[in-house]
Amino acid sequence: PVQKAIPKIPKAQYGGRHTVTMLPGGGIGSELMNYVREIFRYAGVPVDFEVLDIDPNSESNDDWDNAITSIKRNGVAIKGNIETKSEQIGIISRNVALRNELGLYVNVLHCKSYPGVRCHHKDVDLVVVRQNTEGEYAMLEHESVSGVVESLKIITVEASERLARFAFNYARTNGRKKVTTIHKANIMKLSDGCFLETSRRIAKEFPDIKHDDMIIDNTCMQLVARPAQFDVLLTTNLYGSITSNVICGLIGGAGLYSGRNYGDHYAVFEPGTRNTGTSIAGKNICNPFAMLNASVDMLNHLGHTQHAQAIEAAIYDTIVVDKIHTADLGGTASTTDCIQNVLKHLAEKHVSCSTF
Ligand code: ADP
Ligand code: MG
């Protein structure tokens, strides 16, 4: 039997409306979330947000605890990049802690080119399936003696296996043909070796999906030279972050693509390359589409597919047909120009509060 790639996750719903946790985070997060809310309000999307700001300078953990409790209650969240105050060793990044606490073991980044966007490669259509809770992000580091630092990279068969199974199921249910395991098992023979061997074992359960593997170094070179050779990339946490950024960089940068985080119980949606954008905050210049695409992913996850399609089409028309591009794409549009144009398309298609 064909297993669904995306786990069935409970959602908070009352009278047809969903409640979703919204964590704006730092930098450009709050302005982007305001646009998400504006568009949802305009389109009559039946979603209520529980907005929680986490003060990175607060001495107490209350904001943080409330955020986690809220996601556990609602099952679904949309987030920006959350800042962690302390640079102190032993303090775990809150973004990492959130993924760990909610068991969000997989990050899915689907990168599909928008025609007409300034880019290094056209017609890219790749999916990165990234391990999201272990590997180099264990944040277990110490200085064993002065001048000697050890950093632990954790790879388990259990996490590697369910990630691999997710990737192959995703490939199968989304019409993909090939999964490539990205690793450095020639050097990290035990850790990456475990990840690679596990993916080879799981691949046997999916004879309809081609499987191969590639060393991370060569992967970066091949991505830059000939990205069309890849289909689904299955990879550990750090290599996933690197390859995601390389791919986004090839086809338009940090402002366009969204990423999805799944576990057995919760789903969290965010911009794909997880940037804070501190230097561009509050200037009406940031590209809003990565966050808007995250909101579309969220609507699809909740089953509000008509609203998702309407907003997705308005985003596509704004970028591809009207070519309303912010500075990061070489354009001159402001963030609000983009949003106004999305609203205009929704109005033209008569998508407003009463449509659906
Ligand atoms: P990090 O949060 O990882 O430190 P940055 O916030 O510095 O990353 O983002 C990396 C780069 O991407 C910066 O040049 C930033 O301006 C740019 N960037 C990130 N998000 C956006 C966006 N939404 N629109 C335009 N540029 C963006
Ligand atoms: Mg940063």
From TrEMBL:
Origin, by domain of life? Answer: Eukaryota
Q: Where is the Isopropylmalate dehydrogenase-like domain?
A: 19-342
Q: Where in the cell is it found?
A: Mitochondrion
Q: What is its main location?
A: mitochondrion
Q: Could you list this entry's UniProt keywords, alphabetically sorted.
A: Mitochondrion, Transit peptide, Tricarboxylic acid cycle
Q: Name one GO cellular component term.
A: mitochondrion
Pfam assignment, any one: Iso_dh
Q: Which GO terms describe its biological process?
A: isocitrate metabolic process; tricarboxylic acid cycle
**Which family is this sequence assigned to?**
Belongs to the isocitrate and isopropylmalate dehydrogenases family.
Q: What is this protein called?
A: Isopropylmalate dehydrogenase-like domain-containing protein
Organism of origin? Chironomus riparius
From which lineage does this chain's organism come?
Eukaryota, Metazoa, Ecdysozoa, Arthropoda, Hexapoda
